[in-house]
Amino acid sequence: MSRMKVIALSLAAAALVAAPHAVRAQDAKVGFVNVQFLMTNSPQMAEIQEKLQTEFAPREAEFQVLVEELNAKADRLERDRALMSQQEATALERELTQGEIDANRRQTALQEDFNLRRDELLGQLQQTIVSETQKFAEAEGFDLIVASALYVDDSVDITTQVLEAIRAAAETANGAADDASD
After folding, report:
1. 67 in Cβ contact with 96 (< 8 Å)
2. H-helix or E-strand spanning residue 151
3. Domain layout of the chain by residue ranges
4. Most confident option among 6-10, 62-66, 176-180
5. What's the DSSP call for residue 157?
6. Burial class, 42, CB count within 10 angstroms (exposed 0-12 / middle 13-18 / buried 19+)
7. Helices and strands in the chain, H and E counts
8. What are the DSSP calls for 101-123, one per residue?
9. pLDDT tens figures, 78-111
């Protein structure tokens, strides 16, 4: 058998083996979701922002009071340094330095706690998005949902439909929470 016939038969055999998969791929129902858009526009994101504000507002206010006290002491030192004894000025400088160290420590702790809590809440939101996307995909008969792509035709972009499902789930959850609190 000539080398060309072997190559031709090999290609024909490969085409026969691949043909069922090609037909199946043409029948696949594929969708795309923009996860960032879903996170930004979901009602849960507003709830997360409100929850973070409520949880961290007291600590932020406490921190602002500390900063204002330090600023007042710094102003007093600058204004009254000439009237103070060397000991008084040195003691106030030490107090300011210690206060700045404490303020920096508190600010770092506050920021770390805020970031941890924000990440926890955003993780829960991501889980909700994945869950609702999967439910939608199963209900609508999708074979594949893609969350990252270089190009997406509008005909496969199901982001708005999934967002509506997420909103409906949020309303249902809020309704159940309201019923439980009554």
Report:
1. no
2. none
3. 28-174
4. 62-66
5. B
6. buried
7. 5, 2
8. HHHHHHHHHHHHHHHHHHHHHHH
9. 898 888 899 998 999 999 999 999 999 999 999 9
What number of CA atoms fall less than 13 Å from residue 154's CA on the CB side? 0
DSSP 39-102: HHHSHHHHHHHHHHHHHHHHHHHHHHHHHHHHHHHHHHHHHHGGGS-HHHHHHHHHHHHHHHHH
Please name the amino acid found at residue 169: A
State whether residue 29 is helix, strand or coil: coil
DSSP character at residue 182: -
Q: Are 31 and 165 in contact (CB under 8 A)?
A: no
pTM of this prediction exceeds 0.90: no
- Both tokens assigned to 136: 């939608």
- Determine the Cα–Cα distance for residues 7 and 119; give it in Å rounded to an integer: 57
**pLDDT tens-digit readout, 17-50:** 554 444 455 689 999 999 999 999 999 999 999 9
| Second CATH level (architecture) for the domain 28-174 | 2-Layer Sandwich (3.30)
Tell me the two tokens of residue 175.
């309704």
Rounded to whole angstroms, how far apart are CA atoms 29 and 145?
9
